[in-house]
Structures are given as C-alpha cells and as structure tokens.
C-alpha cells in the first residue's frame, strides 16, 4: 500500500512539474514578444458556478499570438497593451473578453457554456433544442478536418452513430451502400430508412446525387418517439439531411470556398490462384487425369488475368461555393465536379452538381422563406462483377489476344472447338468483357423546395408553415456489345450477333406540407409547443425497356404507375421548469397502395424526459454537468412494399418473345398476377429508455439507449393452395418479429490548451432480431429460403431465429481435422453423402450484424491536425462462396481448362461444395477507414483567407481472421466481390 501511494504521489508530482514547465514555456515565449507600451498583467480565472479556479484556461491578447494558460491555482501572468483586451477560453465555458485598462491584477469569472444543450437540432416538421429532445436522436456535422475522400454523402456517417450500421458499397466509385438503423424492422419489405432532404422525403435512399460538401448536418431519428411523426415510412428510422445556407454570421461580404481532391486508388490484394508455372505443374504431375483417349494441350502464354483487369485508378474533385448576404437576402451558390475511375478497367463515375439557396425575410422579419434548388448529373460506366470471378477462374496459360478467321472474337482469345468454331459453353475472356461492353448509365436529378414560416403579426406565438417540394429523377441505361464479341457466343443468342439494350426510368415525387406551430410560455415554469399539420405526397414512375439484336427489336411494354400518400399529424411538447419534458405525437396516414378497408394507419407516440441536473441533490455533484433520463413508446409503419397496388387484380402483357399465333398474326397475351385484397401495413411498436450524460462541463458527454421492438403483420412470401390465387406464392401479412438492442456513445476532449487539442469519440451497438411468426401455421420444420447464388439458397427465415440465418450441411472431418469431401454429419449423428434439405441444419449464425462500433480521434497542434477514423463489427458470419465453388473439376472439363485457388488445390476437393459449413466464417473485423494529416495556412492575403492542405489514406488496413479479401458484405455471401480500393488523396481547401 505504501508503495502504491508513493507511485501515485510521484505521478501527481510529475504532472505538476510538466504543467508548470508548459506554463513556463508559454510565459517565456510571451516575454520575448513584448513591445514597448505593454504592462505586466496577472490574474485568476474562476468558475462562476462553483467559485473554484479553472486550471489550463487559455488567456490570449486579442489580435496577437501572445498568450498563456492558467496554472494549478488558476493564475496567469503575461504582458499586454494597456489598452488591449484579453480573450479567456476553456472547454465547457463561454469565451470571455476582458479589457486590460491599466489593471495589473484581474479576477475573471467564466460562465458555464450550455451550447451543447442549447444547440438546435432538426426534427420532423420543426426544430428543438438538443437539451429539450425527448427521443433517441443524434445530430452529426461532417468533420471537415477528418473525413478523407467522401464520394457519396453516406460516407460521412460510417462508424459515427450508435445504432446505425452502414455497409459501404463495393469498389465501384459512386456505388450505394446499405444503411440499417437498429437492424431494420422488416423482412421482404423495404428496410432502408426514410431520407428527408431539406424537408422533402425522397423516394429512394440513393443519396449519391447530393454533394457531401453541401451538407450541413445529418440528424438520425432512431426511436418511435422521434420517428412516429413520419408514421407509415418510419419503421426503419429516419435520416434528416440539412444542407448549408448562406449569410452565415450576417456578413454581406461574399464568403468563397474552393476545395479540390486528387486521388489514386489501387486494389488491396489479389485472390491467390495458380500462376502459369504452378498451373503447368498441376497438369504435369498427374493431379489432373484426362478421360481415357482424350488429349489436351495447355497454352504457351503466362497471363495474370487479375492484373489484366485491374489498374491504378485516378480521381479528381473540385467544389466551389459562394455565400453571403445581398440586399439583406442570405444566399449560397455551389457547383461541384467529381470524376473517379474504378480499379477495374473501363469503370468510371462522374458527377456534376449545382445548388442555390436563398433565405430572405419579409414583412418586418415575420415571414421567413427558405428556397433550395439542387441539380445533378451522374454519368457512370459500370462493369459486371462477373469479370472478377472470370479473371480468377480463367486459364493462365491462355493469351489475352488472339486472331481468328473472319475476325471472330475481335482480336481476343476465345475457346474454340476442334472445328474452329466458338464454344457456347466456354468461359468468357474477362478482358474482352471489360473492353468490348460499352455501358453507360446517366442519371439526371433535381430536388428543391420552398419553405415559408409566417409569424403572425400581433400573435407572434403562432407560426404558419408551408413547404412545397419536389424530387424528379430520370435514369437512362444503355449497353452496346458489338457483333463477333466473345461474350456474344456464350450469351444473348449464342451466335455472335451483338446487342443493344436500353432502359429509361423516370420518377417524380411532389410533396405539400402545411402545419401550424404554437409556442407559449404559460408561466415562468410552464411552456408548451403544439404543432398540427397536413401532408400530401405523390409518387410516379415509368420504365421503358428496349432490346435490339441486329434488325430484331424487342420492346417490352412500358411500366407506369402512381401512388398517393395523405397524412394528418400533430405533436405536443410540454416543459415544466426546464426539468420535466413531455412529447406526444400522432399521425394518420392514408396510402393508395392498400384497399379502402385497410387504407389508413394510425401511429401514436409518447415520450418523457427528466433532466436530473435541475434537481439540487444532483446539481451539487460538481463533476456532473448534464444528466437526462428519457423514456418513450410509439408505433411506426411500413408501406413501402413491392408494387404500387398489390391489392388489385392486375394483368401483365407479354413481350415480343411470348406472343401467340392467330392466323397470320402474332398476338400479345395477358397473364393474371397474384394479389392479396387484404394486404395492409406492417406496424412496429418500440419501447426505448435512454440516458444523456455530461461530465466536467461536457468535456465528456454521450448517451446510453436500450430498446425493445415488436413488428406485427410482417410481410412475407408464403405458398398458397393451388387454385386459390393466380400464383403459388404470395406476399402477405402473416409474420411477427421482435428485436432488442443497446447503444452507447461517448465523446471526450482529454486535452485542451492554447496549442493542443485532442478529441476522441466512440460508439458501440448491440442489436438482435428474432422471428416469432412466419407463416399461417408455423411448424418445427417450416422455414422460408432466402439469400443464395445461382439458385443455391444458403439462408433461411425461421421462427425463433435471426433473419438470414445460414442453413447448411455440417462438414465431416477425419481424425486429423481435414474435411472429408462430400461427407456430412446427419441429424442423427451419422455420416451421409446426401446433400438434401433434410440433412441441412440451422447454424444459428446469421449475416445480420449484432455488434458493431466506431472510433475516431483528432489531434491538433497549432496549425497541424491529425485524425484517424475506424469502424468494425463482430458476431455476424459470411459464407465464402468464392472458395466453395473452387474444385479440381474446374481445372478441366469438356476440352477446356480453368484456374482455381491455391487453397482449393491443397484441399483437394474434386467437386464444388456449395452447402458445406466449412466455408462459413466469422465476419468480425476492424477497419482503419482513413488517416488524415493536414496543415493550415492562415492570413494568406487578408485576415479571412486561409488554405488547408491535407493528405489522407483510406481503407489502409483491416484486422480480421476471414480468409477472403473483405468480410464486410451486407448479404453475407462472398462471390465475385468488387473489392473496395485503397485510396491516397491530396486535398486543398481555400477560404476567403
């Protein structure tokens, strides 16, 4: 005990010496900068609330670099002009300016900064002070100093919010990822969260068209108290995106920002297959036994097919924005351009952005307008991920290029038979597929709104709000493959004729929201905030496909439909003494997706919050600066299911390839579709308890949330009796599911001095879902197959299990632990070779992520900054289908050869083992998303100009035991994955 006490005393003494040394350095540096006319000033900095001294507070002479920090007694000394001003600041306190005025001894009192609690966050149809929020919500501002290269807006949220799991898209630039808030609440219905951009609920979650540089904040609504105001679309959570506005700080002078990024990307690693030399050895050592009487000759080339399809990819991005106030109208104009090559040849993504925002105030500032218009054009040259698997499996002894009579293959190697004709069953040359397939996807999108807030003259407590918005999108897809291309002999019509395919998708979404908001302080202790409104929304889409093969045109009948949503909603907030907070919401939604009998859904919620720090017995706990308990319950719905009118008996017309001859004419046929006249909403009920906390004037703050969720009337595909409908499988309301979870978030500022600042943030999430009802009559052996490749279903939904649980054969092993090919453990414990569903077992392992977390840290020293972001998960599993389909039979068959992985050669399986749990692996990982180092040059030509240069590296390392390239796959099946690249970026950000 004496030894431990001595160690603690020595540590404390060491800290004191280091801090005093730091103070001495600052004091010495300021003494070197003294000018004539200065006086020696000393003083003490104290806390207004407790009266205690503040250690480490920054004391600066305004307009200069002269400054110091307070010592252990809260005291400071420095030289300052007699007519100067001291700027005193410390984290958790309001910055204070004190005139020197020939005073040599100052007593400065700092007030607690309640900015963290008074910060206004955007919620559904309004705003609320963060300290008054009763629901589980998180507001995130994109970190301009620690973000790396962000191609899509969702990249800014990866690993940042507890309860929100974002699986990035694949390696194709601009690819959309998967966002899941609290794991999602559906099975076959849409599980994506509702996205609201400047008050406009968009009709899909693809937010790649939004320039990340235009985003001011993300607000994530998670529990039913926060989301129920959106009713029928909120079961999977809500993400509200607010874009940047002009006129910040009220400055009339234009504020100009220009930023640029220059990047280079490369593939992290290649899949380990046999080299040409190793391949020839396999054939020469007898591993491959050709059928009796058959001869086969290997090629003479040595081709690394993966290196042929991959490349170093370059990218550039430029953004320019101008904001300010002209004629008392705040404005912001922005334009952006992005061009990013993919690491696969021929893959490129370009985006052009433009935006305009105006925020005028009229009628003596009683009418506030917010006008936003954004437009984008995305041009993508996509590639098929099949070329990844093709490059892995193609014979390395074959050349990339080869000439054949009649220019067959257009100069690329092909598999030919003994008669010199292309083989229709041969594998396609992956390089030819990349180079000869000309794909272009062009998306035009514009989104805008006009929001009016009118504060009634003479009755200013009442605000009338009107929001008119639109979201219009057109996507044109075209693919052209020329005649004689190798792929045209093994697909399309297998005769070498080229093809042209096009599709024209159009979507429009119009919204009108009108609501009144009444805010009133009834007395010094009682406040109410009431809101009631109406919303109308119209969704429309059309699709026009067309296929052309030579002179044959196959134009499928275009698809077009329209959907309407009508809603009435209201919210009441009551506050007692800023201590007890109550929020009640109600929304009624009517959707044309359902029959008149089931058209309306009703979604209530209630939340209570108790700010414990307003109680005296808590307020006396000096380290505690914030403590708020939250409890909520609410219901939300889901109406985003397949088809706009699943309750109606509809007919589908046939295409050109399915006509019926009648005399000398070919007639189109109509086929009845299956339908369910009783289909209705999915409804999710959620209970949530949360705690918001803060310590040391919120230098440490965060939240804890626990929830329980029940979904009823779950939509699921079930088989129906023959003759009872026009299909044997119907999507209908038969299921129930429950979920639960725990979410932890913490942020801290361990160091805050004049020159140094270190921040660290982390979050952790546990979430679990279990199906409690699945079909009309659930039995022990009933389940629904899902999740597979090439008709090989690998996952199931089953009562009592997590959705997407793997359903596989249990691999048998010999005494040395080596897997026995084609042998499995049956349910009775015996060994079997039968690969039937009866011998498969429920693994209790799912692709859904039960545990995930994010970490970030940022360090600044004077003009330098350094940041690291990372995220990870564990508890979920991935099936290595890429390895399961490797076998010795892929080396030779029907006069053609193919490659396999080195591990497959060592394993020695003669045939593919698609269902063996040998290939089911843990998907646990931790990724270093990006590391950024930056330096800022201030006052380039005036006091407001600055330039920041930064270098960042993304996707630089992954810690995992998974044998494949990357276990972060949302569906949990690794097959022909386009790897996410490793990217290095040089960035410039100029402000003036």
Structure description:
- The protein is mainly β and 992 residues long.
- The chain folds into three domains: 2-113, Carboxypeptidase-like, regulatory domain (Immunoglobulin-like, Sandwich), CATH 2.60.40; 116-248, Ferric Hydroxamate Uptake Protein, Chain A, domain 1 (Beta Complex); 260-285 and 300-670 and 679-991, TonB-dependent receptor, beta-barrel domain (Maltoporin, Chain A, Beta Barrel).
- The chain is 8% helix and 49% strand.
- It is built from ten helices and 54 strands.
- The strands form eleven sheets. The chain has a 22-stranded antiparallel barrel.
- Helix 6 (386-393) packs antiparallel against helix 7.
- The longest helix is centred in the first third of the chain and has 31 residues, at 2-32.
- The chain is globular and about 110 Å long.
- The chain starts with a helix and ends with a strand.
- It is a multi-pass membrane protein.
- This is Iron complex outermembrane receptor protein.
- Its main location: membrane.
**What's the N-to-C terminus distance?**
60 Å
- CATH fold type of the largest domain: Maltoporin, Chain A
Count of helix runs: 10
Q: What's the pLDDT, averaged over the residues?
A: 88
Helix-residue proportion: under 10%
Multimeric state: single chain
**Biggest beta sheet attributes:** 22 strands, antiparallel, barrel
Per DSSP E runs of 2 or more residues, the count of β-strands stands at 54
**Overall tally of domains:** 3
Question: By helix and strand content, what is the structural category?
Answer: mainly beta
Radius of gyration: 32 Å
- Low-pLDDT stretches are 1-36
Shape: globular
CATH structural class of the largest domain: Mainly Beta
CATH hierarchy: architecture of the largest domain:
Beta Barrel
Please name the fourth-level CATH homologous superfamily of the largest domain.
Answer: TonB-dependent receptor, beta-barrel domain
Strand content: over 45%
Organism: Dysgonomonas alginatilytica
Signal peptide: 1-33
GO cellular component, one term: cell outer membrane
Protein name: Iron complex outermembrane receptor protein
């Amino acid at each position: 005990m004496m030894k431990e006490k001595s160690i603690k005393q020595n540590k404390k003494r060491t800290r004191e010496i280091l801090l005093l040394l730091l103070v001495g350095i600052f004091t010495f540096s300021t003494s070197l900068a003294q000018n004539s006319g200065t006086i020696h000033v000393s003083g003490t900095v104290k806390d207004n609330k407790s009266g205690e001294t503040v250690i480490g507070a920054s004391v600066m002479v305004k307009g200069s670099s002269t400054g110091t920090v307070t010592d252990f007694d809260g005291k400071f000394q420095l030289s300052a002009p007699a007519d100067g001003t001291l700027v005193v600041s410390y984290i958790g306190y309001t910055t204070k300016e004190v005139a020197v005025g020939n005073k040599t001894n100052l007593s400065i009192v700092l007030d607690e900064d309640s900015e963290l609690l008074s910060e206004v966050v955007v919620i559904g149809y309004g705003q609320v002070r963060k300290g008054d929020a009763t629901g589980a919500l998180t507001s995130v501002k994109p970190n301009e100093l620690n973000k790396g290269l962000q191609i899509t807006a969702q990249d800014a949220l990866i690993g940042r919010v507890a309860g929100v799991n974002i699986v990035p898209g694949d390696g194709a630039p601009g690819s959309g990822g998967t966002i899941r808030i609290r794991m999602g609440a559906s099975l076959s219905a849409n599980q994506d969260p509702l996205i609201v951009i400047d008050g406009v609920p968009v009709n899909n979650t693809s937010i790649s068209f939004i320039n990340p540089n235009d985003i001011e904040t993300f607000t994530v609504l998670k529990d039913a108290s926060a989301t129920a105001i959106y009713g029928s679309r909120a079961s999977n959570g809500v993400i509200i995106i607010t874009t940047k506005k002009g006129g910040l700080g009220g400055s009339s002078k234009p504020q100009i920002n220009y930023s640029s990024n220059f990047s280079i990307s490369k593939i992290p690693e290649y899949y380990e297959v046999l080299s040409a030399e190793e391949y020839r050895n396999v054939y020469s050592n007898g591993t491959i036994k050709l059928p009796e009487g058959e001869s086969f000759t290997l090629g003479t080339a040595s081709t690394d097919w993966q290196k042929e399809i991959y490349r170093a990819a370059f990218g550039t991005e430029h953004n320019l924005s101008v904001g300010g106030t002209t004629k008392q109208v705040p404005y912001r104009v922005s334009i952006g351009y992005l061009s990013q090559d993919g690491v696969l040849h021929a893959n490129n993504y370009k985006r052009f952005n433009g935006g305009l925002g105006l925020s005028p105030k009229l009628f003596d500032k009683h009418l506030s307008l917010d006008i936003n218009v954004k437009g984008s054009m995305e041009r993508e040259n996509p590639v098929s991920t099949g070329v990844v698997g093709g490059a892995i499996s193609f014979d390395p002894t074959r050349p990339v290029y080869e000439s054949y009579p009649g220019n067959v293959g257009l100069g690329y190697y092909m598999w030919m038979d003994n008669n010199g004709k292309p083989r229709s069953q041969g594998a396609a040359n992956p390089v030819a597929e990349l180079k000869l397939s000309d794909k272009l996807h062009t998306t035009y999108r514009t989104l805008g709104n006009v929001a009016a807030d009118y504060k009634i003259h003479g009755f200013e407590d009442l605000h009338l709000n009107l929001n008119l918005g639109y979201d219009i999108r057109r996507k044109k897809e075209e693919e052209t493959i020329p005649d004689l291309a190798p792929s045209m002999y093994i697909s399309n019509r297998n005769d070498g004729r080229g093809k042209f395919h096009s599709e024209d998708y159009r979507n429009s979404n119009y919204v009108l929201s009108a609501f009144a908001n009444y805010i009133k302080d009834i007395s010094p202790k009682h406040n109410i905030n009431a809101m009631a409104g109406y919303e109308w929304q119209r969704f429309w889409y059309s699709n026009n496909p067309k296929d052309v093969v030579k002179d044959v045109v196959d134009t499928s009948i275009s698809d077009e439909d329209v959907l309407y949503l009508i809603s009435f909603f209201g919210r009441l907030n009551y506050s007692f003494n800023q201590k007890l907070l109550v929020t009640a919401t109600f929304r009624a939604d009517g959707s044309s997706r359902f029959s008149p009998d089931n058209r309306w859904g009703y979604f209530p919620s209630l939340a209570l919050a108790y700010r414990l720090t307003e109680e005296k017995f808590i307020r006396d706990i000096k380290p505690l600066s914030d403590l708020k308990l939250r409890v909520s319950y609410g219901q939300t719905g889901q109406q985003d299911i397949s088809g706009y009118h699943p309750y109606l008996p509809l007919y589908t017309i046939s295409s050109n390839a399915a006509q019926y001859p009648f005399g000398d004419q070919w007639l189109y046929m109509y086929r009845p579709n299956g339908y369910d006249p009783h289909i209705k909403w999915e409804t999710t009920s959620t209970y949530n308890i949360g705690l918001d906390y803060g310590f040391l004037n919120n230098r440490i703050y965060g939240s804890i949330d626990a929830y329980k969720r029940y979904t009823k009337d779950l939509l699921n595909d079930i088989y129906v009796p023959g003759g009872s409908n026009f299909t044997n499988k119907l999507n209908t309301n038969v299921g129930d599911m429950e979920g639960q979870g725990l979410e932890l978030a913490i942020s801290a500022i361990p160091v805050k001095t004049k020159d140094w600042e270190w921040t660290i943030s982390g979050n952790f999430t546990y979430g679990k879902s279990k199906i409690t009802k699945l079909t009309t009559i659930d039995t022990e052996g009933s389940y629904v197959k899902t999740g597979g490749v090439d008709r090989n279903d690998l996952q199931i939904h089953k009562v009592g299990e997590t959705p997407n649980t793997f359903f596989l054969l249990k691999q048998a092993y010999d005494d040395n632990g080596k897997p026995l090919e084609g042998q499995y453990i049956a349910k009775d414990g015996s060994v079997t070779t039968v690969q039937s569903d009866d011998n498969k077992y429920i693994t209790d392992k799912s692709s859904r992520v039960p545990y995930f977390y994010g970490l970030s840290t940022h360090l600044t020293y004077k003009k330098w900054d350094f940041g690291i972001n990372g995220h990870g998960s564990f508890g979920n599993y991935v099936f290595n289908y890429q390895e399961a389909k490797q076998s010795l039979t892929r080396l030779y068959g029907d006069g053609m050869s193919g490659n396999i992985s080195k591990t497959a050669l060592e394993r020695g399986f003669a045939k593919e083992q698609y269902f063996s749990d040998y290939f089911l692996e843990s998907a646990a990982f931790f990724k270093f998303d990006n590391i950024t180092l930056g330096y800022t040059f201030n006052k380039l030509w005036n006091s407001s100009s600055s330039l920041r240069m930064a270098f960042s590296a993304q996707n630089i390392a992954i810690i995992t035991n998974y044998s494949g390239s990357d276990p972060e796959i949302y569906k949990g099946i690794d097959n022909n994955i386009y790897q996410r690249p490793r990217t290095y970026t040089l960035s410039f950000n100029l402000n003036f």
